[in-house]
Amino acid sequence: MTQPEACLVDVYETILTCDFGRHWRELPALAGVPERAWRQELLARSPALTVGQLSTAGAYTEILHALGASSRPGLLAELTRTDSELLLASARLFDDTIWFLETLRRRNIKIAIVSNCRENTRGLLTRLGITTLADAVVLSCEAGYAKPAPEVFQQALDQLGVTAGSAVFVDDQAPYCAGAAALGITAIQITRPNGQPPGHARQPPDPGHNPADLATVASFREAAALIIPASSPG
pTM here? Predict the structure, then answer.
């Protein structure tokens, strides 16, 4: 692989990990509804949340109504605030994340963060210092499209001013890598050895749509060795 002009990088389970277990326990407790019912209602609204058709506050309003919960004054604001606080409290950057992004910048490789997520992710990335290391941040909830749709990748390419053939994409989910590869982007799947934390909703694998020659790595240091063959990460 020759050195690319740009690198598109996923967020969850790629640059950072989160334990969403507390979300599933504490938010329904705050709302005074059963955990299982809360989870079912929230998961049903996940597609709309992911592409920005529904805000977090809007989703929680609908869920409270659907479950017949008593919406006391200030509850909605408390739920949305707690949601963001729990996300920040449980997020942990992988040890090689900052090193990887800074390595790309030193080699003049443009960086776009590309994530399927809800609206609280931008604030999280800002607090963790990731947005200052990226040239573009493309979030599905703002873009109106979610991976593996080609539009979300194209938005990232357009913001960076590069073509698909001059970019590489790193993500933990093979179907999303396949979506990038279909557009002509070189894809690398990162499979962290520690797996996912409790409560993490992972996209099920789809072998029929995974690139047969998909490169896989276990760390950003391995990814850097593929993206910048002449470099010696260490």
Answer: 0.88
